[in-house]
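Page 42, continued from yesterday. The earlier attempt failed because a stray header line got pasted into the input along with the sequence. Redoing it now with the clean sequence only.
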Amino acid sequence: MRYFAAAKAAAGVAEDVHDLPGGSTIDGLLVAAGLGGHPVIGRSSFLVNGVTVSAPAPTRVLVDGDRLDVLPPFAGG
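This time it went through. Structure tokens are written below.
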């Protein structure tokens, strides 16, 4: 899992790795990382293996080897 900008500040690291049981979702991964319910993370968008996850992103099931990018809202245009 890689974090960017405010998500990186919330996580306290730029990236980390988690081993999860089969059928785990993005939400489950965020809880495992200690970020479930964090306001910045709750407003973030997600990429799995470089592809934007459509809503509802937290219910997206992850498989072994997936890389999740957490992108908080960015200011500017």
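Notes: The chain has a mean pLDDT of 91.
Reminder to self: strip header lines before submitting.
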